[in-house]
Specification:
Low-confidence stretches: 240-245
Structural class: alpha/beta
Order of helices and strands: HEHEHEHHHEEEHH
Number of helices: 8
Largest sheet: 6 strands, mixed
Number of strands: 6
Strand content: 5-15%
Helix content: 25-40%
Distance between the termini: 25 Å
Radius of gyration: 17 Å
Bound molecules: iron/sulfur cluster
Strand order of the largest sheet: 3-2-1-4-6-5
Length: 245
C-alpha cells in the first residue's frame, strides 16, 4: 500500500482543524479536492442516498467524475431508494456505483439467527448486513467519505473534516460537517437534484424498511430510525471517545 501524507498509521490530527476553507460550500468542495488528490483511487464514498448523500454525489462528481461509490444493499431498502439510485446513475453516468450485498441472504440469515433479527437484535443485524460489507468494501482503500454533519447528533458534534477511523482502520473524510439541514435542502432544490421521494412524506432519515418510520413534527434529521430501541447509529460511526482511544 502507498504511503499517503495522512493515513490511519501516521494520523496526527485533522490538517484542516480549526479552519473552514473559504468556498461557497462551507469547505466541502475544498476537502473533496484535497481528498481525491491525496488518495486518488484509494478512496471510496459509502453513500446511503439520503439527502446528504445526493448532495455529496453531486459535489464529488465535480471533482472526480468516475469516483467509486458504495451503497450497502441490505436487501431491505425501500423501492424508492433503489429508484433513486437508478436516477442518480443516469444523471452521473461515469460514477461507479456499486451495490454491496451482505454475505448472507435474508433467508440464510433467518435460518442461522431466526426470522426478523432486526426486531430482536438490530446491532447484530446491522453488523451482518452493513458493517461487514463495508469492511469488505474498504479493503485496499486508505480512506472513505461519509456525509456526517455535526448538528445531526451529540455523538457527531465533534466530527472533523479528516478523522482517524478506528472501526475500519482507515481515514474518514467528512466534507459536510458544517452544513445544516437547511443547507442540504437548499442545495438540493437550487441544483435540481434527484432525492428520495419518501422525504416528502415525513421520512427525514431513510434506511432499511423495518428500522425506518414516518415522523410527524420533528426537527431531528435522524428521527424515525430504530424506534423502540436505544440505538441511533448502525455502527459504521463510532463515537469520538472511542475514536481518540
Ligand atoms: Fe438490519 Fe435494521 Fe440494521 Fe437494516 S437497519 S441492517 S434491517 S437492523
Amino acid at each position: 500500500m502507498k504511503n499517503y501524507s495522512v493515513s490511519h498509521s501516521n494520523f496526527t490530527g485533522d490538517p484542516f482543524q480549526g479552519s473552514v476553507p473559504a468556498d461557497s460550500t462551507k469547505g466541502a468542495l475544498t476537502i473533496l479536492k484535497w481528498a481525491y488528490e491525496t488518495y486518488q483511487d484509494s478512496i471510496v464514498y459509502a453513500c446511503s442516498f439520503g439527502a446528504e448523500g445526493v448532495v455529496l454525489v453531486d459535489l464529488i462528481s465535480k471533482v472526480q467524475k468516475d469516483a467509486e461509490i458504495v451503497f450497502l444493499d441490505t436487501d431491505l431498502h425501500f423501492q424508492e431508494t433503489y429508484d433513486l439510485i437508478d436516477k442518480v446513475q443516469e444523471m452521473y453516468p461515469r460514477l461507479r456505483i456499486l451495490l454491496k450485498k451482505p454475505n448472507l441472504t435474508l433467508e440464510e440469515q433467518a435460518e442461522k439467527y431466526g426470522s426478523a433479527l432486526w426486531k430482536r437484535n438490530p446491532n447484530q443485524c446491522c453488523y451482518i448486513r452493513k458493517i461487514k460489507p463495508l469492511e469488505e468494501a474498504l479493503k485496499g482503500a486508505t480512506a472513505w467519505i461519509s456525509g456526517l454533519r455535526r448538528e445531526q447528533s451529540i455523538s457527531r458534534s465533534n466530527t472533523d473534516f479528516i478523522n482517524k477511523d478506528e472501526r475500519f482502520e482507515s481515514i474518514k473524510v467528512c466534507p459536510l460537517i458544517y452544513w445544516t439541514w437547511d443547507d442540504v435542502w437548499d442545495y438540493i432544490k437550487i441544483n435540481g437534484l434527484h432525492y428520495n421521494r419518501l422525504h416528502d412524506n415525513n421520512y427525514p432519515s431513510i434506511g432499511c424498511i423495518p428500522c425506518t418510520s414516518q415522523v410527524i413534527d420533528s426537527s431531528d434529521s435522524r428521527a424515525g430510525r430504530w424506534s423502540g430501541f436505544n440505538k441511533t447509529e448502525c455502527g459504521l460511526h463510532i463515537s469520538d471517545a472511542e475514536k481518540n482511544k
